[in-house]
UniProtKB/TrEMBL annotation:
Gene transcribed to yield this protein: rkpK_2
Residues at which NAD(+) binds: 30, 35, 86, 122, 156, 270, 336
NCBIfam families: NDP-sugDHase
Residues of the active site: 267 (nucleophile)
Domain (UDP-glucose/GDP-mannose dehydrogenase C-terminal): residue spans on this chain: 322-423
Name of the protein described by the UniProt record: UDP-glucose 6-dehydrogenase
Pfam families: UDPG_MGDP_dh, UDPG_MGDP_dh_C, UDPG_MGDP_dh_N
Family membership noted in the UniProt record: Belongs to the UDP-glucose/GDP-mannose dehydrogenase family.
Catalyzed reaction equations: UDP-alpha-D-glucose + 2 NAD(+) + H2O = UDP-alpha-D-glucuronate + 2 NADH + 3 H(+)
Organism this protein belongs to: Mycolicibacterium vanbaalenii (Mycobacterium vanbaalenii)
Binding site for substrate: 153-156, 211, 256-260, 264, 329
Length: 447
């Protein structure tokens, strides 16, 4: 099929490359010429495992190309995927949907034949119906232009697998155009559906809500375990052992029960806020007041990490802090609302001398926090450090040998912001180890 993907961010590039890998002809559209130049040479402007190789392969095969012209998209494609961002509005909880609006305002007047537009972006419920009406109003092809909603659930770091082997495909469509939208979606995703992936067809509002509720649930699960971690800290219990024990209950499950610095990134934080804002507009604000608490628990983790560092060091003034990890999660270079970078910044602003090392995110960090110190390796970052903080659970940090790092630092103190290290191993090497919700001494870790 001839497919245009509008918006070349994490979601759009992944979707474009994956659709090309399914055998479709794909045109990726964005307004950023610099980004398009990189993509055209097969280079992805962010880090996502395997995506560089897949993009390059698809560009070389001639199945994936890029353009900054909506005219090209309108002339070329029978199917359009809208994958532009919906960030948090400045100073408000609500989502800024202006990028999706502009796609429709620019593209729809050029649509002279029957096409289906699939929204993939996370949008406030009601957006899809509004855009559907607007697209049909603006398009010369009128009602032959169908708009449906096909939310995306991919996780950064696992984007290709999540796109090609999703847990489920959800398609929201309006009653009038449902038949056509469903038929086209089935054709686009035929090789995925052949694998038996569940395909759920719902109305537009339900599809929008499935996506935002999934993210709200995940955020709630993380804040739940972080709240329990606070109680574990007070009681001298171990939240990691507790989560393992909870996880065996199939109704609960172990995934997303990792206590630590909490959630960040371009989705979870802004999505729960946008969800609260939209519920308020709909008169259902009381239903989601618990998400305020979810947000508060999450943000509290960051200041607790700063306080823990102060407590362990006695003061932050002039203290040399090695921060390992700055991306919002491992296998990503994304630092949007990163808890790790937030903590590094707070420590520096409160008088510590912070040296950050991240395997992939350093360039992005420098743009946001040019005043932090940046190192090229774990060893450089930890050189004469008074304290080491592990704030993103990259495999490289899990693999550190405590005895090897011991000769490099000034003081053997390590704070594990992601509960990703083995406390016994570090303590056995003479380190002061503190995790989140793991008690203070050997005795609280099962011995
Ligand atoms: C999320 C959703 O998972 C995905 O379905 C949606 O499409 C986009 O938003 P992503 O932002 O890539 O994906 O990251 P995710 O893996 O969900 O992690 C989000 C944050 O939660 C990270 O900062 C991570 O470190 C944190 N997290 C995750 C925890 O603190 N504990 C956990 O147990 C799991």
């Amino acid at each position: 099929m001839k497919i245009a993907v509008l918006g070349m961010g994490y979601l759009g590039v992944t979707h474009a490359a994956c659709m090309a890998s399914l055998g479709h002809e794909v045109l990726g559209v964005d307004i950023d010429d610099e980004k398009l130049a990189k993509l055209s040479s097969g280079e992805v402007p962010f880090f996502e495992p395997g995506l560089d190789a897949l993009t390059e392969q698809m560009v070389r095969a001639g199945r994936l190309r890029f353009s900054s012209s909506y005219r090209d998209a309108a002339d070329f494609a029978d199917v359009h995927f809208i994958a532009v961002g919906t960030p948090q509005k400045r100073g408000e909880f609500a989502a800024d949907v202006s990028a999706i609006d502009s796609v429709i305002e620019e593209l729809a007047p050029m649509l002279t034949r029957a096409v289906v537009l699939f929204g993939k972006s996370t949008a406030p419920v009601g957006t899809a119906e509004r855009l559907r009406v607007r697209a049909q109003e603006l398009a010369p092809a009128g009602a032959d232009v169908e708009l449906a909603w096909n939310p995306e659930f991919l996780r950064e770091g696992h984007a290709i697998k999540d796109t090609l082997e999703p847990d489920r495909l959800v398609l929201g469509a309006a009653r009038d155009g449902a038949g056509r939208a469903i038929a086209v979606a089935k054709e686009v995703y035929s090789s995925i559906l052949e694998k038996g992936i569940p395909f759920l067809t719902v109305d537009l509002a339900t599809a929008e809500l499935v996506k935002i509720s999934a993210n709200a649930f995940l955020a709630t699960k993380i804040s739940f375990i972080n709240a329990i971690a606070e109680v574990c800290e007070a009681a001298g219990a171990d939240v990691v052992q507790l989560a393992d024990a909870l996880g065996y209950d199939q109704r609960i499950g172990r995934a997303f029960l990792n206590a630590g610095l909490g959630f960040g990134g371009g989705c979870l934080p802004k999505d729960i806020r946008a969800f609260m804002a939209r519920a308020g507009e709909l008169g259902a604000d009381q239903a989601l007041t618990f998400l305020r608490e979810v947000d508060a628990i999450n943000m509290r983790r960051r200041s607790q990490m700063v306080e823990l560092t102060r407590e362990v060091c006695g003061s932050l003034l002039g203290v040399r802090v090695a921060v390992l990890g700055a991306a919002f999660k491992p296998d990503s270079d994304d630092v949007r609302d990163s808890p790790a970078l937030n903590v590094a910044g707070q420590l520096q602003l409160q008088g510590a001398a912070v040296n950050v090392y991240d395997p992939k995110a350093t360039d992005n960090c420098r743009k946001i926090f040019p005043t932090l110190g940046y190192s090229a390796s774990v060893v450089d970052a930890c050189d004469r450090a008074d304290i080491v903080l592990v704030l993103t659970e990259w495999q490289e940090f899990r693999d550190i040998e405590p005895s090897e790092l011991a000769s490099i630092v000034a003081h053997k103190r390590i704070l594990d912001g992601r509960n990703c290290l083995d406390p016994q191993q570090w303590r056995a090497s003479g380190w002061l180890y503190r995790g989140f919700g793991r008690g203070r001494s050997e005795s609280s870790n099962g011995f």
